[in-house]
Amino acid sequence: MSERATVAMVRCADYGDGLGGAVERAFSLMEGERPREPNVADFSGKRVLLKPNLLTDRRPEQAVTTHPEVVRHVIRWFRRRGAEVSVGDSPASTANLQNVWRLSGIGGVCAEEGAPLISFEQAGARLFEQDGFAFSVAQPVLDADLVVNLPKVKSHSLSMLTAAVKNIYGVLPGYSKTMYHRQYPKLAVFGRLVAAIWKVIPPSVTLADGVVGMEGQGPANGRPVPLGFLAASENPFALDRTLCGMLRIDARRVPYLVDGLGGDYSCVGDTVTVGAFDVPSGAHILNILPQRLADVFGKLVWVRPAFSEAACVGCGKCAEACPVHAVAWSEGTRKPVLKRDACISCSCCHEVCPADAIRMTQSRILRMTMAFKGM
Fold first, then answer.
1. What's the pTM value of the predicted model, to 2 decimals?
2. How far apart (Å, rounded) are the C-alpha atoms in residues 259 and 246?
3. In angstroms, rounded to a whole number, what is the distance separating the alpha carbons of residues 142 and 3?
4. Is 245 helix (H, G, I), strand (E, B) or coil?
5. Which of 54, 290, 292, 305 has the most CB atoms within 10 Å of its CB?
6. Residue 372 scores a pLDDT above 80
7. Between helices 68-79 and 106-113, what is the axis angle to 10°?
8. Residues 6+ apart with CB under 8 A from 234
9. How many Cα atoms occupy the beta-carbon half-sphere of 348 within 13 Å?
């Protein structure tokens, strides 16, 4: 990441004919007028890995995953510059990979464009120790000359915002993503883990899909919302800080943007105005209370999932996703039952629910605190 980053904003109303030009302009604005070595835009023979957000098996119009047309135009942009382009991700551990590729449209685009589609779970991984954390990163990510991060701009019940920085969590293959939620349930610590992952990633660039984003109970059960932009930067932290300003999110409440990460940056391109953006009620709310108060009144201060029996389809994904086995099954009804004392407010069950049957709810004292603070 450069010392002074540029965040490029480009208006883009839909995924139609103007999308290719918007992708081209976003990358051009990001590169700017900085002196560059000859042929720096020539990627001949370079291995470029596109990393979209493929959280789970949803259709493009549901705004859970990176839109396939964005992936298509980025493949073409790098192909025109001679790159060897592949696409890869590691969806939620409960997701059926073939369904994810099919329903998201990414599988179809990769087949049409002749781009290899890589399963991180099946390609090996390398262990790192960084900033006090130990984690494994999928080998195809490490083998790339350039990682192109393609997040979807969404609200998130755990971290308030999921976009450029959080999308890199998908380079951790398989069940390890769930394991780290159990190992690091405190949001501040989890945010430092995500920041540490970025330190071992090869050179990267981010293009965020904000044409249609998600608000409300994100990252999987919120509402699609037209945002009308693409955003590009070599610095994912700077990009997310820019998004926080646009969406009126206090960056201090986003756990992976602690300690001023993002550095010095400037915004170029279009002025984009976003109307009201609904952030979900989730575990991030615990950050508004002093830790001492949260520790003393732990049984009174909580954020937990609530299950709708009417909406539940009995798929069992919530129980499979829970890293601490706090979600069990009622043998009589085949519906989920929460073991309240075991819940760590990680929102993993909420992320994978395919039926919008889970809401993150707050304790009474937390609701009162929010009302007092005008949140």
1. 0.89
2. 20
3. 22
4. helix
5. 54
6. no
7. 30
8. 1, 2, 5, 6, 30, 204, 205, 206
9. 29
Q: Indicate the SS3 state at residue 48.
A: strand
Which residues are within 8 A (CB) of 226 and not within 5 positions of it... i.e. 6 or more apart?
13, 211, 212
| Position 137 confidence tier, pLDDT thresholds 50, 70, 90 | very high
Taking only the tens place, the pLDDT of each residue in 53-76 is: 999 999 999 999 999 999 999 999
Residue corresponding to tokens 């992708």: 23
3-state secondary structure of 226: strand
Which residue type is seen at 235? N
pLDDT in tens, 244-273: 999 999 888 888 887 766 678 899 999 999
pLDDT at 334: 82
Six-digit token pair at 117?
Answer: 């589609």
Q: Could you give all domains of the chain from N- to C-terminal order, each with its CATH number?
A: 4-269 (3.40.50.11440), 283-373 (3.30.70.20)
Q: Is the pLDDT of residue 375 over 50?
A: no
Nearest in space to 208 (alpha carbons), one of 90, 53, 75, 21: 53
